[in-house]
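Hi R.,

Here's the chain you asked about this morning:
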Amino acid sequence: GAQDFLVKGQFDGKLLGRTIRYSLHRFSTQSKLENALMDLELSKKKYIEAQEMAHFGNWEMDIVSNQMTWTKEVFKIFGFQSNSINPSQSDYLEYVHKDDKAAVEQFFEQAAKDGKQHAIEHKIIVSGHMTRYVALRAKVRFEEITGKTVLVGVIQDISERKISEQLILEKNISQKATKIKEEAISNMNFHIRTPLSSIMNFTYLMEKTTVN
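And here is the predicted structure, written out as tokens:
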């Protein structure tokens, strides 16, 4: 609707001045709002880019219906196109590796009960055969606007980190095995070669000595 409108023949200089001042003020406020919106959109874009680079996504779950809401990166972690399914807790658990399923079920149960932040790392199966490692965090939150209690959380693909840790572990094991081998050779040198050398020397002396 119109604001500070002027009726022809029913305004004076004072009213006109006030109307112009209000118009300038509204224009300034509108410009600030537009700039704030642009900054917000830019921040959102940077946040999404950061999530993609870190393989990091957000999710929410209604603790009554167990229906979940995933961000684009969560769909990507599980190998889905964005919004291609309406995920639930059972859908999430379906892709959890069988070795970790009991622990993840307990994780959701505990996080929904005590209101504390919980964290877990576990494996998921993507595309039916590929194993990925993810780090999961969750905490209960009450939404005053909707009156719902939801479980909010984040998930991050940590497969690269786990592979690096495995390579470091294998390297350490290899180095330890090499060290044990060197120690074994050193012990063999002391306990076998040294006495054997003495025996050979005594044998040589006996061969060169006339025995009565």
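One quick note: The chain has five helices and five strands.

Cheers,
M.
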